[in-house]
Amino acid sequence: MNLSELRPALDRWLDDNAAALAPQHDHRGTLDQQMAQLAKVKRMAFDAGWMRWGWPERVGGLGGSPLLRGYLGEALTARDLVEPGLYSMTEVLAPTMIDFALPELAAAMVPRLLRGDETWCQGFSEPGTGSNLASLSCRATRVADGWRVSGQKVWTSLAQYAQRCVLLTRTGTPESAHKGITALFVDMDSPGITVRPLETMHGVEEFSEVFFDDVAVPADRTLGEVGQGWSVAMDLLPYERSTALWHRGAYLHRRLDRFLAAVPPGAVTAGEVGEVFQQLYALRARSRATQHRLAAGERLGPETSIDKILLATTEQAVFDLIADGLAGDVVLGDDPAAERLRAEFLYSRAATIYGGSAEIQRNIVARRLLDLGADR
Amino acid sequence: MDPEERELLAKSLAQVTARHTGASLDAALGDLGWADAHAADPETAVSTLFELQGSANATSSALDHVMAAALGLGDGAMSVVLPPLGSTEPPGRVYGGSVTIAGLALFAVADRDWTVVVGERAAAVLARATLGLRPVQGLDPGLGLVEVTATTAWPDAQSSCVPWPEAVAAGQRALAHELVGASRAMLDLARVHALERIQFGRPIAAFQAVRHRLAESLVAVEAADAALAAAWDDRSAFAAGVAKALAGRGARTVARHSQQVLAGIGFTTEHPLHRYVRRVHVLDRLLGDSRSLTRRLGDDLLARRSLPSILPL
Q1: Residue ranges matching CATH 1.20.140.10 in chain B
Q2: Over 80: is that where the pLDDT of B160 sits?
Q3: Which of A284, B87, B125, B257 is 20 to 30 Å from the Cα of A330, by its Cα?
Q4: Bridge partners of A139?
Q5: Is A259 an 8 Å CB contact of chain B?
Q6: Do B168 and B195 contact (CB within 8 A), yes or no?
């Protein structure tokens, strides 16, 4: 299967099954409804084979280029069938499991994620560990049959829905920084885990605080080598900035398209619309090139920080334009369509914060791409 | 072209753009057969030459060749009158048997017998003597622009159905490469200075305010470069216009940040930065400036009330 074969066949399947795939809720829906929709769409796409293309056969996939996954997520997003932020967790966490879990564990677990049977979360940030990820302190202690974990995570997306968590823990000395981190794959129903959702500015309990109180984790749930958790985290980031980012670009294209159909004459200037479109075009062009590099087997690295900067900047530009052009809806509207617009506008405020802040991305560009040396 | 040929071409072009500019660069390009390379593989020939020309702050009349080829006038010994500053419209206005011309041309127009003028519906080849030519000093004397004005007879036998939008697109892609080349050169000048200039006991490259300006510059260049690669994939007038606007705005962003990082020395003629700053402010305005291209794009999008589907994976 290649992309030119998959594209028309998938489009036809999406058309033929449009009614069954469509959300049961109107407008944005609650997070519960969005999660149920995501599981339904993944299940249908998995059973029809689409969700399996682009993943290795040893984890239940059908093989083929990652471009196939790129197009599937784009097609689902462009038709408003899934919320791209929720869908992206699959693209970010499945490759980590494939690269670092014991083969039997990956073979058993990844199909559950692809089929929509399970939700996984990513336990990286901590109250004292934001941009400086290497300073994390959630402690994993060796015991006879594995690990005992105690500590706290925060900003853990979808933790209240998750059956599993890819968790970064401190296994070295407190001063060991990035050398003393180990990644674990933790069952979220383990005794000792408490999840407390946080309500965001856009009115969604999207992420949580997660507390670990002497939680037992078996030894075979270690991802990669002990003390090599930093490379697990670093390996995951380029995925976040390739396929998942391509999907988010498709979402912004869709939003700008819908905006143009709705904007009243004179509400925004031609220059503003043209510039936002050009930003979107550059983002799509850059992200497409990255997708093709990934498909060609290239190892993605710090250059994907440019993709991330373009995404964050474009996302805020698109929603700033929408908030100006449809100000009546965003500022005053209380109907479900306006609530959706407002939620999306507010969520875009976080685009320069999550997944490595705008400042951290520019630090990476300066240090790694421009070779400007240390910053202090 | 295979990779080996491409590398060889890039190497020869790097040498000649570093040493020559203007008529002598034209002669050097003739010697190394750039026109043949352009006929065989326009993307490689244009992207390589114009990026190097931009980064060396050199000028040639290769843009004439690129536009003449797109107009179906292959032999390249003719100048093509460009639209006036900021515009993408054909420079000739035809009324009855005469044409009024207001446009710009590259330096070579003064030495050539024939010049291509495109009007609203047709193109004609006019003798040099019929044109009023004013060599421009202006903001960037090194570029060698010439202002062209004339009211003269419009010959009867003209080619109709002129591919003017294709010629503009071909020229915009070339200029966008030149802007990207100049942007990378400015960024490199600023980068070297930031690493060498010591203040408060350390290189100013250690200060985040400086680092972020340079990072922002690289993002602007890479965004334009990605759009430009996409413009070669589909070769539409639409994509070329987007790439030109991004390259023009990006170059002005890089010029602003680089000038700030280079500070005092970058404001003198003892440092080469000023030549690039001048160049990008002029190149941005040839074949459509970023502001007008952007506004026109926005007008089109607002009129159609939807986005075109772009850049399939």
Answers
A1: 164-304
A2: no
A3: A284
A4: A150, A170
A5: no
A6: no
Structure-token pair, residue A184 = 């674990």
Helix pair B237-266, A270-295: axis angle to 10 deg: 100
Tokens 């080829």, residue located: B69
**What count of CB pairs under 8 Å joins A to B?**
146
The answer to whether A289 faces chain B, any CB pair under 8 Å, is: yes
Contacts of A268 (CB under 8 A, 6+ apart): A321, A324, A325
* Per-residue model confidence (pLDDT) at position B1: 86
Residue B201, Ramachandran bin (φ over 0: left; ψ between -120 and 50: alpha; else beta): left
Predicted local distance difference test score (pLDDT) of residue B74: 67
Query: Which residues in chain A land under pLDDT 70?
Result: none
Please tell me the predicted confidence (pLDDT) of residue A6: 97
Q: Does A281 touch chain B (CB under 8 A)?
A: yes
Question: Hey, what are A95's tokens?
Answer: 């490759």
User: How much is the pLDDT for A200?
Assistant: 93
Question: How many angstroms separate the CA of residue B236 from the nearest CA in chain A?
Answer: 14
Per-residue pLDDT, B166: 96
DSSP letter at A330 equals I
Q: Can you tell me whether residue B266 is helix, strand or coil?
A: helix
Does residue A366 belong to the interface with chain B, where contact is any CB pair within 8 Å? yes
How distant is the alpha carbon of residue A29 from its chain centre? 20
Q: Which CATH class is domain B164-304?
A: mainly alpha
The rounded percent of chain B whose pLDDT value lies above 90 is 91
Q: Model confidence over B120-146: pLDDT tens digits?
A: 888 889 999 999 999 999 999 999 999
Distance separating alpha carbons of residues A82 and A41, to the nearest angstrom: 8
The three-state secondary structure class of A144 is coil
CATH topology for B78-160 is Butyryl-CoA Dehydrogenase, subunit A; domain 2 (2.40.110)
- Cα A79 to chain center, whole Å? 18
DSSP strand E in B86-178: where?
92-95, 98-105, 114-118, 122-127, 132-135, 146-153, 159-160
Residue-wise pLDDT tens digits, B25-58: 999 999 999 999 999 999 999 999 999 999 999 9
Give chain A positions within 8 Å (CB) of B205. Answer: 366, 372-373
CA separation for the pair A274, B196 (Å, rounded)? 39
Which candidate from B229, B230, B298 shows the least CB-CB separation from A273?
A: B298
